[in-house]
Design brief:
The protein is of the alpha+beta class and 103 residues long. It has one domain. It has one helix and eight strands. The strands form two sheets. Strands 1, 2, 3, 4, 7 and 8 form a six-stranded antiparallel sheet that branches. Strands 5-6 form a two-stranded antiparallel ribbon. A hairpin with a 2-residue loop joins strand 7 and strand 8. The protein starts with a strand and ends in a 9-residue tail after the last strand.
Length: 103
């Protein structure tokens, strides 16, 4: 099974810190890679127009952000950038680089 996950956090999705699932806003599940890829590409296209910045790493992580969207961190006493991240999982694990998704 494939999943396309939207997370919103003060870190990019590729870090996948231990608590990353606490930041998941939405999960969509798909039976085929084609369905997941179509949905993922559509979100990338839509969000590329919505947010100022975008970075993709490997084939399964994309982060979007706008420089002014921040949250205050009490622990570090500073403002932190908010990232809107997309992750593609296959059977609960990040898609491998050799599993062509965006082509």
């Amino acid at each position: 099974m494939y999943e396309v996950i939207y997370m919103k956090a003060d870190f990019e999705p590729w870090w996948m810190f231990e608590e990353w699932r606490d930041y998941v806003e939405q999960t969509k599940r798909f039976e085929t890679k084609r369905e997941a890829a179509t949905y993922y590409r559509a979100l990338i296209e839509e969000w590329s127009e919505r947010y100022e910045q975008k970075e993709t790493r490997h084939v399964c992580f994309t982060a979007f952000w706008t420089k002014g969207e921040q949250c205050f961190c009490d622990h570090c006493d500073d403002d932190l950038q908010i990232f809107h991240g997309l992750i593609v999982l296959k059977d609960g694990k990040p898609l491998r680089d050799d599993e062509q998704l965006l082509k």
